[in-house]
Amino acid sequence: EAAEKSGYAHFMLKEIHEQTRSLQKTFAGKLAELEGNVRLTELKLTDEQIRNINRVEIIACGTSWNAGLFGKYLLETLAGMHTDVSAASEFRYRDPVMDENVLTIAITQSGETADTLAAIRNVVQYESSTIAITNVVGSTITREAENVVYTHAGPEIGVAATKTFTAQLIALYLLAIYMGRKRNYLLPDEAKDVIKALKELPGHVQQVLNQRDQIRKNAAQYADCRDYYFIGRGLNYPAALEAALKLKEISYIHAEGYAAGELKHGPLALLEKGTPVVAIVTKNRTYAKMLSNIKEVKARGAEVIAVADERDREIGKYADLVIFVPATNPLLSPVLSSVALQLLAYYTALEKGCEIDKPRNLAKSVTVE
Ligand code: G6P
Predict the structure, then answer these.
(1) What's the gap in Å between 199 CA and the centre of ligand 1?
(2) What ipTM describes this predicted complex?
């Protein structure tokens, strides 16, 4: 087992580091930068089918559900497609309003999650198009869905998903660009900007990993706290949800992710002196609003750990601690924030002496209902 970890103390740490390569594998051979487009030759959808899609329904569980929420924001922004996201365990017992023009996307790392499989089987009756995004070649979902987009992140051993999560995000960028171009919603130049940033991601991820010693110190500072909050807006909101999930899974600290604008509708009441609040505040159109949220939080005595753009000269005035991530296209920065916060979760759990690769009560893949 030591050999399989290639010198890393845990599979999770190894897999976090592998993201410099795994992300590249997800988009390898698929970027057509000059044309401002992507190639997804694995999709069997005709142009007419794509034009006729009236809604996208994403179904997934756990970390894949967080990726799904991310997908909703991307498909809306890049492809102008109305998108809903459902927990598979809810979708299968609801009365979803579906027709043949709803595209269903099932996201499942393992391809074996019982609820996700049951949900996609329910969709068959609508005779609509389905796409599975999965990491495991030949997994059950690949036989249930009409189309498959593989994430190619390589096997993931740590129960807490890391490289498979960011690979799912990459697959969703590809899909959103593809749909946006096919539906004449996204301009080639807009697609080129995203594609350029995608190509730069591996190098940017390396820059985040290079800060592991600082993130380790930050983690140690708050490892004894009872509660942790993660806030973000826009695409940084699903990133906040995923960061909270990662921390609770492996460190057993109570953690919640919140849309920052919702703070005043409940969670503010829980903040005490010293409660850590991680604010994902990379530059995007919600930046000013995030600064107001940070001030609200500080006014209640909470401590703010900001995840911010390296070019941000202001943030140090508002936050107690700052984890800087490389500046990139605002649509892409949540990938970098996610990697930084995977490290925060990892080092918090390490500090607490938790069994990182096999957290209590959790399984890598839940194949029972
Ligand atoms: C389990 C794992 C999670 C994962 C979820 C969904 O709960 O511990 O890490 O996100 O299942 O798994 P899937 O394979 O469908 O993505």
Answers:
(1) 27
(2) 0.97
- Which residues lie below 8 Å from residue 47, measured CB to CB, with a gap of 6+? 182
DSSP state of 86: E
**Cβ–Cβ under 8 Å, residues 11 and 357:** yes
Between the alpha carbon of residue 161 and those of residues 13, 64, 85, 186, 363, the distances in Å are 11, 9, 19, 31, 11
What amino acid occupies position 240? Answer: A
Nearest 5°: the CA angle 105, 108, 111 is: 110
Q: Scan for tokens 């894949």, then name that residue.
A: 64
- The alpha carbon of 166 and the centre of ligand 1 are apart by a number of angstroms equal to 14
Q: What is the DSSP string of 151-177?
A: -------SSS-SHHHHHHHHHHHHHHH
Which segments of the chain have a pLDDT < 50? none
* Predicted pLDDT at 188: 97
Q: Of 89, 131, 134, 91, give the one whose Cα is nearest residue 109.
A: 134
Report the C-alpha gap between 226 and 349 in whole angstroms. Answer: 13
Atom of ligand 1 nearest to the CA of 362: 8
Using the atom order of ligand 1, give the atom closest to the CA of residue 64.
16
**Cβ pair 280, 239 in contact under 8 A:** yes
Cβ(63) to ligand 1 under 6 A?
yes
Q: Is 132 in the pocket of ligand 1 (CB under 6 A)?
A: no
pLDDT, position 130: 98
355 dihedral zone (left: phi>0; alpha: psi -120 to 50; beta)? beta
**How much distance in Å is there from the Cα of 66 to the middle of ligand 1?**
11
- Is 367 near ligand 1, meaning CB less than 6 Å away? no
Rounded Cα–Cα distance for residues 58 and 60 (Å): 7
